[in-house]
Amino acid sequence: MRLAMIGLGRMGAGIARRLMEHGHEIVGFDHNAEAVDALAGDGATPATSLEDVAAKLQTPRIFWVMLPAGDPTESTIEALMAIADAGDIIIDGGNSFYKDDIRRAKAARERSLHYVDVGTSGGVWGLSRGFCMMIGGDTETVDRLDPIFEALAPGVGTIPPTPNRLNREGCDTRAEKGYIHTGDAGSGHFVKMVHNGIEYGLMQAYAEGFDVLKGKSSDRLPEDERFDLNLTDIAEVWRRGSVISSWLLDLSADALAKDQMLDSYSGKVADSGEGRWTIDAAMEEAVPAYVLSAALFARYRSRVEGTFGDKLLSAMRFGFGGHVEMPQ
Amino acid sequence: MRLAMIGLGRMGAGIARRLMEHGHEIVGFDHNAEAVDALAGDGATPATSLEDVAAKLQTPRIFWVMLPAGDPTESTIEALMAIADAGDIIIDGGNSFYKDDIRRAKAARERSLHYVDVGTSGGVWGLSRGFCMMIGGDTETVDRLDPIFEALAPGVGTIPPTPNRLNREGCDTRAEKGYIHTGDAGSGHFVKMVHNGIEYGLMQAYAEGFDVLKGKSSDRLPEDERFDLNLTDIAEVWRRGSVISSWLLDLSADALAKDQMLDSYSGKVADSGEGRWTIDAAMEEAVPAYVLSAALFARYRSRVEGTFGDKLLSAMRFGFGGHVEMPQ
Amino acid sequence: MRLAMIGLGRMGAGIARRLMEHGHEIVGFDHNAEAVDALAGDGATPATSLEDVAAKLQTPRIFWVMLPAGDPTESTIEALMAIADAGDIIIDGGNSFYKDDIRRAKAARERSLHYVDVGTSGGVWGLSRGFCMMIGGDTETVDRLDPIFEALAPGVGTIPPTPNRLNREGCDTRAEKGYIHTGDAGSGHFVKMVHNGIEYGLMQAYAEGFDVLKGKSSDRLPEDERFDLNLTDIAEVWRRGSVISSWLLDLSADALAKDQMLDSYSGKVADSGEGRWTIDAAMEEAVPAYVLSAALFARYRSRVEGTFGDKLLSAMRFGFGGHVEMPQ
Amino acid sequence: MRLAMIGLGRMGAGIARRLMEHGHEIVGFDHNAEAVDALAGDGATPATSLEDVAAKLQTPRIFWVMLPAGDPTESTIEALMAIADAGDIIIDGGNSFYKDDIRRAKAARERSLHYVDVGTSGGVWGLSRGFCMMIGGDTETVDRLDPIFEALAPGVGTIPPTPNRLNREGCDTRAEKGYIHTGDAGSGHFVKMVHNGIEYGLMQAYAEGFDVLKGKSSDRLPEDERFDLNLTDIAEVWRRGSVISSWLLDLSADALAKDQMLDSYSGKVADSGEGRWTIDAAMEEAVPAYVLSAALFARYRSRVEGTFGDKLLSAMRFGFGGHVEMPQ
């Protein structure tokens, strides 16, 4: 198929290349002309503006927008809606907030355009492993784009099948290849958002566990209850047949194998919108999200040196008990 | 009544003085001779050793031990058990772990001694306001000591009565004066322990709330959504008819009135055993304690600059997304 | 002063009566004619429509809207903006989301109207105790309305002054009477919102603590470590000089004095918007809110019998360990 | 090697069989004679008592105890210590609390015996996949037992190597085969304990995430913001290249493929000691464990229908606001 890739950063360029490798044709556009040139060098058709992009596709056109969520995506999609003809397809492949998708899909529908949102997981590894994709949009359009998604997905590979799927009808076979149609527009990014919420929780569980392992050598403990544990080997052994083996553990094992003290990291941890939006969604649904929220808050806390709230605790303790702060 | 006060630190000396003011006689002992002399100057009978203490009381003797929990209390009570005669009473007025009380009370019973544990709240303010006391031990002994407890308690004072107690039989009238017999030995410190667990939770709720108020002036927010709030006046107004008025809020209002920025505090917050023991008790009972544990953990977190777990989060993020840490 | 009270439910009627008792004149309106008649019987001027309300006030008019947050408040304020003349004042005394205030205040400004938001705490008790008020709006308008707020506030009363305020300049003396001007429009409801967030946290701290006390009689514990505690007397004694005394504890003591088992309650706990909005605000500010969020989630959890997530835990345990669910 | 397997339940028998398949000789003992006979049928030497076990091994003997933690393990190891000769080895392969190991290892040392604790992960799947083992004990003894551990471990298999281990010296190659020597006695069970603590956290992260996905179809949401998601396919697609792929997700995908509603589960989730001990360890080390504790508490909460604490919340709300409980 022939489609435009708008936004040729690491992810956009990677997706474009993977698609070309699978025989698709790419019209590439980015405000950074060097990025366009680089992709053109790999066989893409370069474009100099959104209008030029449109001119270089045949209708119904396929525009894949791969830009940072928020203003860049919003303004580009707005511009595309003005340019596009009835029947054209706009794909938002970034990390948009799903309610923005719902709104934009409605606007697209009013102009007889199709809107598809694609949440992708896999990080920079997706370029080689393939992308795990969660796709929202109308069924006809998502089906029409299937060759693109199949090319991007990791495929069945060597991952063992899920036993209970084998003898069951009605399972979407695309799931086994690494992509699914999740429902109407917005649902792709919603599912991806929850994926990231879970990711935060999983990461924090490992983080706390390794903190407990590391703390076991603390001299605040009785001497015969201390262990000086090899975290590198522990992470490695847990990859082998343990209940908590996972890809995040694989990454942890690799990081620890490089430097068991992780001294190159300060531990100030960023968060993107998805973690927060997941808590918002939980609150809208009245679903308890203790772990997912605690994982998010741990990141906030990692970025401040001493909270005002902590000072207030000290002030209260001084107030009722004359306690001065601990010297530690 | 005549009793010994063993341990004449701030709390022990204060309790002894309050008792003498109410007409009780005190034999005072401390390893620090100056503390003994000071109390003797106020009318106490000085003692030079535990044996001397015993000699200066008539049987059945009353020993009030007011020492740091752990070894000092343990060794002193052990020594007293060896010295005491059948029928004597040992009171642990410190912050002991209630299971230690249960064990020591059993040992005392085997020697025909009486063991009473007194949990006290009120901090340094108790010296003037009176102490809120939770008392464990056998009923006959606790009743016999009633004049002592009544003298120490704040009394009915100006606190309005609880409406539903007025027309109800079976309520312990001591509760309205500020002390209760909670049950067998150990129960006094158990109830005091949970009191402190709750205290941690209350404090953390205020801490987080004031953090949110303070953060509302952050320039990470849209300009028209920022407020530069006067935390001092907010704390004060909440003391006046709001649902969240409390003594801890009174203390907060006072601290904020002195320095709204709380700049004299580093925010490294200590914790004593009670917070931890409360979580232990919750786990033994399989009771969810999300808030009480989070309040405890916030104190732990306040005392480290960057956890190993946080570094592991950064390492994982680098692993899957090539994310470098945020500059902030 | 003369002002309109629009919305004569329990709160609106109570505020109107308290104002009339303090010599203010009220024009009362409600869709429920009986509520209007009842207030007229107490001396208010009845009105039959918003237009009638406007006709019965002299400019600059004061409209106090006391309606449920959301649509009722929104549509009424919109209608008032169309009716009002330049210089008129619209007060939202309900539980609005502060961002709605910011938006409405901006719209009001564009029409040369003044918008004031009043967050009130004190619940049904405020009718007799007076209301604790947090007021947002432009200074001139808030100052002009001072007689109204002073009449509604509890006043200095018998609450002891905060020591550090006594010898300090620059403290807002209104705070000691129970109301403050918090800043621009929206800030009143924002501060009230955080107040409620804290309220949730405080309540949950007590709830967990009493759960631990109650669970101590559980037969899952070793027999010599069980206590059958009198929760009614414990709540009462903690009102007397303890660190955790508070108005919420007073209410708890009263409820427990009526029925120690609290058997008349199912324990399905509602939440209003403020708890959730506080978490939203915390996330916007990147402030950790472990306790406030956990308190909110506990309410969500109280309203479901068994979560899907819990079933998934059981399914995983069966998957890796063949564990069947516990019979309990 | 020749060793005794004491305790022939599912795990003990499975381990014994796997060892025999790898050429080791087993003396089998269990209070259940049928279990002994069954294993004898597979080639083991049956024993009728611990003394008989000892008689059928040559010194230095190897006793592998595979019994429930607590009394059964404790009393058996005590009996073995009395029977054993200097130089004999006692292995505790169960789920013991690591402080019990430390104590027992000390007692063993005083009798010139060797004590080894083996924490195993892998659940019932370990019988076919091999067991991931964390082993505590003195180096000489653990090294001597290496053929046993290597036989039980999953081996390198098809799991890709950790890149940073390849070009690094000093990494324990046993880790890549699925077992490690963690340090002194007790450390094996300690590491396994933290493993389980992490496991709780991971499971709860998935549980909350799927709860949010499922709740997205709730009719409490605006109609155009609802999605009716296929959880079965979502779990499957996340196995394929996503950041949150893991063995626990594999199990979830399988359970959901069997029944997307998980209707056969009540959602009352048990917990074993390890989750609680991990929180204890965190508190001893002053390490924040928000997520691990919340995961534990969620299990507690899953097993009660309505907590006393929730009732107290309702009672307070009635007290301050006259709120009656929600009908829902």
Salient structural properties:
homotetramer; globular; 16 helices; 6PGD_dom2 (chains A, B, C, D); 8 strands; alpha/beta; 328 residues; eight-stranded mixed sheet; oxidoreductase activity (chains A, B, C, D)
Greatest interface by residues involved: A-D, 106 and 107 residues
CA radius of gyration of chain A is 24 Å
State the helix count of chain A: 16
Q: Low-confidence parts of chain A, pLDDT < 50 over ≥5 residues?
A: none
Calculate the mean pLDDT score of chain A and round it. Answer: 94
Helix content of chain A: 40-55%
| Strands side by side in the biggest sheet of chain A | 3-2-1-4-5-6-7-8
Largest sheet of chain A: 8 strands, mixed
EC number (chains A, B, C, D): 1.1.1.343
Protein name (chains A, B, C, D): Phosphogluconate dehydrogenase (NAD(+)-dependent, decarboxylating)
Keywords (chains A, B, C, D): Gluconate utilization, Oxidoreductase
GO molecular function, one term (chains A, B, C, D): oxidoreductase activity
